[in-house]
Design a protein that fits this description.
- The complex is a heterodimer of chains A (307) and B (293).
- With 307 residues, chain A is mostly helical.
- Chain A has a domain of 205 residues: MetI-like fold.
- Chain A is built from 15 helices and two strands.
- A two-stranded antiparallel ribbon of chain A has the order 1-2.
- In chain A, helix 4 packs antiparallel against helix 5.
- The N terminus of chain A is likely disordered.
- Chain B is mostly helical and 293 residues long.
- Chain B has a domain of 173 residues: MetI-like fold (Orthogonal Bundle), CATH 1.10.3720.10.
- Helices cover 80% and strands 0% of the residues of chain B.
- Chain B contains 14 helices and no strands.
- Chain B is globular and about 75 Å long.
- The N terminus of chain B is likely disordered.
- Classes of the chains: A mainly alpha (307), B mainly alpha (293).
- At the A-B interface, helix 1, helix 2, helix 4, helix 5 and helix 6 of A face helix 2, helix 5, helix 6, helix 7 and helix 8 of B.
Chain lengths: 307, 293
């Protein structure tokens, strides 16, 4: 290695050469202006009372103390957990079963083309803007003339009609169901790619030994794509904590806060109630949770890579 | 599965023996998967059906009947009412600019991190990863406030700048790990031939990394096209709005009747559908790459 680097040193000595770090300069400046400064400002604002106009008034940790006592805030975080179930847990579990079924049964025994067409159907909602998905579903779930209620009537199940997004008892579950639909394609595609990487001989050996499909799935397939499962769970959990567009378009956090989530809660504080300091405190709290989660995941990943 | 396996059979052609074991199960599995896939695309079909119905047809026959004829007035009305061509142009302009600029910024960052191996590399990389995970809610108010101060509020340029940086956080992370595995000998050889770092980047590194950069371009384009919160806050005038924002705001106001809602939804779905068909291979390759790196 040292013998390789010495001639290049000779080249470098002959000419004035800038260091590699110079290539980071545009990126560093851009990140400073768009990420670092706004983020620090947001954290600063969270320590003030501010209406968005005039000068902010120092408030110390007042906003955070208020947050701890604000039941609407805690409720929005409980809804975040529901979103984690709908966007991370359920899509990962369903995605695993679907990916394994597509891979083991369809791709191997019927044809890879059939498998990719089916995979495309599941992935399609992922490329849709969430605002458009919201329009589609709020019409399907509409109380009058909505496609779901009409379909229930047509099937003779008219007694099951609901105001799916307007009834506080159903709204959160309806939003969760839409999010499963939106999210499912992502784990499916990642897991199918992971299965292609996995070693097929283990699977075949287990099959020859007479292991049932379920046992092979549990003991052979799952351990082989464990890295993909971790990554998918992490990404989807973070996406679930950030969810905003779907709530804005489907329910605006209603009815009566039944589907409010922290990101929408902070948006309301910023732009509807003009309690900018309070909104900043909500978003800072959300950021701390997401970054803590990300750091834990990064640690797990580096540890896994070191082994 | 407990059926006795003839030893000769299993030894001779294990593949065939195995598929015969599966024979009873694979068609039910196929049927179940087809039903599930149909349920996934059903909302698109229902929307397409109702977008081409006349309002009279819709109120007479409800959302589940087949349209009596192809009636494009709803689509035309909606297109004119929101000046949809303009929204498409705005979305394309913003997403296209962001894709190119963010890819460029990612390449520069990743060159310094992955090939230049600058000091403190793990920290720099961790910074980009965290920046990528930051919720936009923690940036939106200061970005809104600052852009007003510098006169960029309600301009497409402001959204382009912000998303160039946000998307390049992911691009830097992905491309750095790809370039970290770049063969050192190739770089050394070009350097010995007298190429500067700048020349090595454009004549060696970028051409070789073209597949990864292609994936980034496609992802940045689609992600930016689908973005909602920041464009919603930053682009308030009709002339600057993107497709997502225009549709989301209209939906939020609940001013549309059923056929117009479906027309809006169909017009929103179509561009996404086109991107999907055009970029399907790049998308699936990219998702797998992003998840494993």
């Amino acid at each position: 290695m040292s013998s390789m680097s010495s001639p290049s040193h000779g080249v470098r000595r002959g000419r004035r050469e800038y260091p590699y770090a110079l290539f980071l300069l545009p990126g560093a400046l851009a990140f400073l202006a768009v990420i670092v400064v706004p983020f620090l400002m947001n954290t600063g604002i969270s320590l003030t009372h501010w209406q968005g106009v005039g000068s902010p008034e120092w408030a110390g940790l007042d906003n955070y103390r208020d947050l701890l006592d604000d039941s609407a805030f805690w409720e929005s975080f409980r809804h975040s957990l529901a979103m984690v179930v709908a966007m991370a847990v359920l899509p990962t579990a369903l995605g695993l079963v679907l990916a394994a079924a597509l891979f083991d049964y369809i791709a191997k025994h019927i044809g890879t083309r059939t498998a990719s067409v089916l995979r495309a159907c599941f992935y399609l909602p992922q490329v849709l803007p969430i605002a458009v998905a919201g329009i589609v579903w709020s019409w399907i779930l509409a109380p009058e003339n909505g496609a779901l209620n009409e379909a229930l009537d047509a099937a003779g199940l008219g007694s099951l009609r609901q105001d799916w997004l307007g009834d506080p008892d159903f709204a959160l579950y309806s939003v969760m169901a839409v999010m499963v639909w939106v999210q499912l394609g992502f784990p499916l595609v990642v897991f199918m790619a992971g299965l292609q990487r996995a070693d097929p001989s283990l699977h075949e050996a287990a099959e020859l030994d007479g292991a049932s499909w379920w046992r092979r799935f549990w003991h052979v397939t799952l351990p082989q794509i464990r890295p993909e499962i971790y990554v998918v769970l992490l990404w989807c959990t973070i996406a679930a904590l950030k969810v905003f567009g779907a709530v804005y378009v489907l329910t605006k956090g209603g009815p009566g806060g039944a589907t409010n989530v922290p990101s929408y809660f902070s948006f309301q504080s910023f732009f509807e109630k003009t309690q900018v300091g309070y909104g900043s405190a909500v978003s800072t709290a959300l950021t701390v949770i997401i970054l803590a989660l990300a750091l834990v995941a990064l640690r797990l990943q580096t540890r896994a890579e070191d082994q | 599965m407990n059926a006795p396996r003839g030893p000769g059979n299993a030894l001779r052609r294990p593949g065939n023996a195995l598929s015969r074991h599966h024979a009873p199960a694979r068609y039910p599995v196929l049927a179940a998967l087809i039903v599930a896939a149909a349920l996934m695309v059903l909302p698109f079909l229902v929307v397409a059906l109702n977008a081409v119905k006349s309002p009279a047809d819709y109120s007479a026959n409800g959302p589940l009947s087949l349209p009596e004829g192809i009636h494009l007035d709803g689509l035309r009305d909606f297109w004119q009412r929101v000046d949809f061509g303009r929204k498409l142009f705005n979305s394309a302009l913003i997403s296209g600019s962001v894709a190119v600029l963010a890819a460029l910024l990612s390449v520069l960052n990743a060159y310094a991190i992955g090939i230049g191996r600058v000091r403190g590399r793990p920290w720099v990389l961790a910074f980009f990863v965290l920046a990528n995970m930051l919720p936009q809610e923690a940036l939106v108010y200061p970005v809104y406030y600052l852009s007003k101060q510098v006169g960029l509020y309600d301009t497409r340029l402001s959204v382009i700048i912000v998303f160039t940086v946000i998307q390049s956080a992911f691009g830097t992370y992905l491309l750095s790990s790809v370039l970290g595995a770049f063969p050192k000998e190739v770089i050394e050889a070009a350097r010995i031939d007298g190429a500067t770092k700048w020349q090595v980047l454009w004549r060696v590194v970028v051409p070789v990394s073209r597949p990864t950069i292609g994936v980034l371009l496609v992802f940045f384009f689609i992600w930016t096209w689908n973005e909602f919160l920041l464009p919603l806050v930053m682009l308030i005038s009709n002339d600057n709005q993107t497709v997502s924002v225009a549709l989301g705001v209209l939906q939020g106001q609940r001013l549309m009747d059923a056929t117009m809602t479906n027309a809006a939804a169909l017009l929103g779905v179509l561009p996404a559908f086109c991107f999907f068909l055009i970029f399907q291979r790049t998308l699936t390759r990219g998702i797998a790459m992003g998840a494993v790196k």
